Amino acid sequence: MILRSTLLSKSVFGKAALWCLLIPVVFCGKLHAYFETYIGFRLFYWWYLLCNKRWISFMYFIGMIMAGIWLITKRKRLINSVNRLYDSKDYTSAFVVKEFPGQVSSFCTGCLKPVIVIPEGMSKDEADIVIKHEETHIRLGHLWILFAYDILRALLWPNLFLHLCVGYMKRDLEDICDTVTIQRNGIDVCDYGETIIGCAKNMMVAKRKLGCESGMSFAWDDSYKVLRKRLERIVERKAYNPKALSAGTLVVTIIIFAAIGIIDANSYRRVNDIGNISSVCYTDDIENIYTDYDQSVVYYYDDDYIYVDGKALLDNYPEASSGNGYFYFAVGGYYKIPGIGGGSEWGELDAGDLHEGTIKVPNHTEIDIWNRIIMWL
Fold first, then answer.
1. Is 90 exposed, middle or buried (0-12, 13-18, 19+ CB in 10 A)?
2. Reported pTM
3. Distances (CA, A) of 364 to 77, 108, 290, 340, 361
4. Closest CA to 351 of 313, 322, 323, 309
5. For 52-95, how does the pLDDT look when each residue is reduced to its tens digit (9 = 90+)?
6. Are 78 and 211 spatial neighbours (Cβ–Cβ below 8 Å)?
7. What span, in angstroms and rounded, lies between the C-alpha atoms of 111 and 91?
């Protein structure tokens, strides 16, 4: 946002490229640096501990579901309103054009089946400009970009910055659409600006009647200051070089994929094997849970048995020589990031069966369908 308002404030496509920074950020959640560096530990570990609380995780998922329902409901309401409109008989386009019986700011909506909505009573010249503008939005994939951004807002709903920035993203998409529409179609700048002003007068009606903020509106913002700046950018615009723009897009794409690759190389894998670390719990000394890092007690395990060194176990729990109580062993398992995982296997041993040789304890797996879903995510 700082670059957008300073260094790249005059660059229509430069500002748009900045939004691509959100793509690699999505993959930063499992970086080693959060857990394995001093700075990462000091800055982020408190948040990790906070999110480990079950009730906070529950609230997060509830909030995510509610945010998703809210965004889906808004889109569904808009689609239902648009579907009730009649197809236009006066204007043609590569996409469906519908007419609203009244004053409304023209807009487009629908990722899979795009629809352009314009108000009745527009002059042919105005309608042609508006339809070309909305066609550009659709062809440039702006509706899909907004859809992806809505998914990101639902998944990361506590991040208020994402919700506050949606307006800025739409402004930048509008600037791109203005630039491309004018140059590709050879539209006069004055005619284009007059059409924007005419549509802006009906913007508030559009929001109240259709909730078209879920789509891309021709004049979506009711701020005079924003509208004035948009018109100034249109008047001051410079022709762009399509080949240079294509090359720049390719460079940005390469940078994004490279960034994702670097992030992935320095992150925990989707599923990480805990390895041969095991833990031992004795029912008669429940406070003393022994973690076997060096495989001195549990020296091996397979799908059928856990192999325990009886003498080493007695050395750690001499009170077990009385033959009372039970030992429980946890071996293997996985983790997504340190502290979050599961799927460990376990075994049970009656202390009465304890001896100094190798003890084979039947192994039980805990990899159920829930664990497999978590491992896949």
1. exposed
2. 0.77
3. 51, 57, 20, 21, 10
4. 323
5. 777 887 898 899 999 999 999 998 998 898 999 999 888 889 89
6. yes
7. 21
